[in-house]
Design a protein that fits this description.
The complex is a heterodimer. By secondary structure, chain A is α+β, with helices and mostly antiparallel strands. Chain A folds into two domains: 128 residues, T-fold (Roll), CATH 3.10.520.10; 128 residues, ApbE-like domains (T-fold). In chain A, strands 1, 5, 6, 7, 8, 13, 14 and 15 form an eight-stranded antiparallel sheet that branches. In chain A, strands 2-4-3 form a three-stranded antiparallel sheet, covered by helices on one side. In chain A, strands 9-10 form a two-stranded antiparallel ribbon. About 5% of the residues of chain A have low confidence. By secondary structure, chain B is of the alpha+beta class. In chain B, 16% of the residues lie in helices and 16% in strands. Classes of the chains: A alpha+beta, B alpha+beta. At the A-B interface, strand 1, helix 1, helix 3, helix 5 and strand 5 of A face helix 1, strand 2, helix 3, strand 3 and strand 4 of B. Strand 1 of chain A pairs parallel with strand 2 of chain B.
């Protein structure tokens, strides 16, 4: 998934080391770029039940939950389309590509994923892409485990998917800055005592294929990279996996931003469209240090 | 589901679904090769150096016999607090 990880622990120092080790463990289980991972095993054996660890079982369960929660806008079975678009290796390794052979059907949907007795069976011809939800869920798992192990407070940030719980270093709420979509600086500060913040955009993880610019957000209705006019979304939710998929779904649904799924999930969000117009859901003001600007200055 | 801009080539899958302690000291830093944990930065602050801090999460942690995995599956809203001028971390799209 090619992302940085940041861990802040209020408590014994060895817990920070434990967090780093656990993140690496989850990466080994879930990376689709590691042929030995459990997710790679699932994809190789699509159509057959595959015995997986409790962590991977939970990943697949949460992915199905996310598919339902977003009414299909988040779809973990877009792997074939992601690969077809050229994202077939860790992002750092992508250069200009001309074409890629897809490893699975265009897009299936998560309804066909079967979970039974510790096994997962993907529909024949499909592939599972843990992508963003894997980062979010990993942050959730590590925070929950460290809190159970005695940490007074924990913050885990995996590639921008942030989960916090318990005491912050200052004793106040955990403050998470929201990075500007396309230029240095931040656009907001979010205060959270317990919960998660995640961001999705079509402005990052772009690459070229011939003359065509592509990115990693696949529209499940077309199987192609999405080019909606909503380019950026940040969601505040109880858990990072939920914030991650809600943010992705907001961007995929396009402008004007529709916050119905976000609000149904008890979450809050802010969005930015192509023209820099900023919008927020009803509850987002509860978390912000200052009112949102109406228009965001964009990079020229 | 509400309609979306153009380019739709087949029905959306949902139709089929129906369904005060000062700054944090850097306690450890590690670089892991590859993937999600390509660069992992860990910081730990001894508990003794912290103020009382938030207790807002204790309710969720004593909510019965549900496992952490079950808790993660249930909806739970984030608990808001006042943002300070010094962010602990940054959210960005990766």
């Amino acid at each position: 998934m090619g992302s940085d990880a940041q861990v802040v622990v209020v408590g014994p120092e060895h817990l920070a080391d434990r967090a780093v080790a656990r993140i690496a463990d989850l990466e080994r289980r879930w990376s689709r770029f590691d042929e030995r991972s459990e997710v790679s095993g699932l994809n190789r054996h699509a159509g057959a039940p595959v015995l997986v660890s409790a962590e991977t079982l939970e990943l697949v369960e949460r992915a199905r939950d996310a598919w339902r929660m977003t009414h299909g806008w988040f779809d973990p079975t877009v792997l074939g389309a992601v690969v077809r678009a050229g994202y077939d290796r860790s992002f750092d390794a992508i250069d200009a590509v001309t074409s890629r052979a897809a490893s699975s059907a265009l897009v299936a949907d998560a309804a066909g994923i079967e979970i039974r007795a510790g096994t997962v069976r993907l529909p024949v011809g499909t592939g599972f892409d843990p992508g963003g939800i894997g980062k979010g869920l990993a942050a959730d798992i590590v925070v929950d485990e460290l809190r159970s192990d005695g940490a007074a407070g924990v913050c885990v940030n995996l590639g921008g998917d942030v989960r916090v719980d318990g005491e912050s270093p200052s004793g106040d709420a955990w403050t998470v800055a929201v990075e500007h979509p396309d230029r240095p600086g931040t656009i907001a500060r979010v205060g959270v005592r317990s919960g998660a913040v995640a961001t999705s955009t079509t402005l990052r993880r772009r690459w070229s294929s011939g003359d065509e610019l592509r990115h990693h957000l696949i529209d499940p209705t077309t199987g192609l990279p999405s080019w909606t006019t909503l380019t950026f979304a940040t969601v505040v939710a109880g858990h990072a996996w939920r914030a991650e998929v809600l943010a992705k779904a907001l961007v995929l649904r396009g402008a004007p931003a529709r916050f119905d799924d976000v609000e149904a999930a008890g979450a809050a969000a802010l969005t930015v469209d192509d023209d820099g117009r900023v919008a927020g859901s009803d509850r987002i003001g509860d978390f912000l240090a200052a009112p949102l600007p109406a228009i965001l200055a964009r990079a020229s | 589901m509400a309609t979306t801009p153009t380019r739709r080539k087949r029905p959306h899958p949902a139709r089929r679904a129906r369904a005060a302690a000062g700054a944090v000291s850097v306690g450890a830093m590690a670089v892991l090769t590859g993937g999600m944990a390509a660069a992992a930065h860990a910081a730990a602050t001894p508990r003794a150096s912290q103020s009382a801090g938030s207790t807002s999460t204790s309710t969720a942690r004593t909510s019965g016999d549900r496992t952490p995995a079950t808790r993660r599956a249930t909806s739970g809203a984030a608990v808001a607090g006042s943002a300070s001028t010094q962010p602990v971390t940054v959210t960005h799209a990766s």
